[in-house]
Model the fold of this input.
Amino acid sequence: MSNKKRRNIRKKLYNDSDDGDEKQETIVLDQTHEKSRDKNINDSVVMTPPPRLSFIDEIDDEVIMSPSIKANPAVKNINQNANTQISKTEETNLEEIKSKNQAIQSSSTKTKDLKIDKGELILEEEPYAAVVDDNNLDKFCSGCFAKPTRLLRCSACNLLHYCSERCQRSDWKQHKEECKTFVRLQRKPPASIRVFCRILKRRSVDKDSFAAIKNLNTNRTKFKQEEIETFAQLSILVKECIEPLAAGEMIELFCRLTCNSFSVLDEEMIGIGVGIYTNAALINHSCVPNCLATFDGSKLMVRNIQPIQKDEEITIAYTDLGIPTMERRRELNERYFFLCQCELCKQYESKENVDPRSALRCKTRGCTNPIEPPDPLEMQEEIIVECSICKQIITYDTADVENQIKESIELYEKGMKLLVQDVDEEKAISQLERSFELQKNLLHISNQNLIRTQKSLIELYSKQRNWPMALSHSQLLIDAYRFLFTEWHPLIGIQLLVTGRLLLCMHQDDEGVRNLRDSLRILEVSHGYQHSLTKSVADILKQMERDISIRQGKFD
Done:
């Protein structure tokens, strides 16, 4: 294979819809920008954590003062089988919560008379309504949710972007009226208002379909009064955009969307938008789910990442499974009004089992056993523990541990602040590296703070094309994810893909191909053979394997 063709293969690593029936006039698209090659490389290599998007985006203080309500990569339905409902409280004792729980009838999301092998498509669903979030409007197509090299901006509202006139025409039924509103309003409506208005727009032309929205549980009585007041204030913003429902119905719809909205994720499991999926919203939560939701554009797909037995309930995760159990439970309680009683959460109720997401590292070289961090409430000068794996007696100075953790977090936050301010990228990297140096010898490899720091460093080093440094952190992340998640979890597959791409950038083709093979094996289960990401990895792998075979004289 020629060097030119080889270069083309490497370039492909980083460049990874019907016309409307109505012959209606659309707004001209501006050819606003074309992303630089550097940007494409960074976007392809970097894998950052999926954010928990806010359904109620930040609004001007004059409009709203209450904290935002979050929408996660999955949603809550009122039916809980493994979980039980609880009232929402500011601070709630675990035992008090348990005493108040009431059993909820099992949902209908169970397999009937069959066993399902891993990697099967359980559900495929187009959104009732979906929008690209505020931070990604100039990066993703508002029609197909793709991330092209070149985007065209709507020349009227200057807010939405499309990858082609074809995509703009397909979205015009939705955008036509809102476009006029965006032009008229001085402040552009946030994603929460835009998706809300699209739901009302669809209701106005297809009232029967709205029954699926009304079927979603509101949890109306469980929201705090200040949150209800927030919804009332947001309703005023909606009136600026579209003819609203009655006041009570508006509040109930905000409640429904808050509890049942999904973060739309891109190929690398990064949140790019918010959508409503009325069928997927009926699936219950577990912190050890047998299924997960991925997206191809705005289309949601639920696949099982482990075999499902007959009569076993189908579950997905509503929240980031990389955060510590106590935080995860508190988040589920505050956002979805239930105490998670899944096997993973119950496992860490006892101090005999240590959650690696918040754990310290065992001091014995090579030992991966998580060690319980000191409890500030116990006021101990030092903690002495026997590692259950290596059997070594380990002593930690409580004050020293707490100071190092505090300092590492402060360094991380300083580094990220420098990046946001776009002041000094090199200084930001220096701060993050200092944070990492403190964390790597103290925290468990799967500690959420260490993982967060490494993800940021991968992003920065990739932007600088410092492949060796990005690679070293990416390989450590693979180990962290394998410790945390099941074999077929997509974050492992995606991190293997990131690592494979970095290796190919360094011309370490054999090792890069091995990582791509491992990545493809997982993605075929988590995303399916027909997913655009899976196909892209398969194409790259096929070409690289051909290249290697030619070099080794095994291919004519």
The radius of gyration is 24 Å. Residues 14-24, 33-54, 56-108 have pLDDT under 50 and may be disordered.
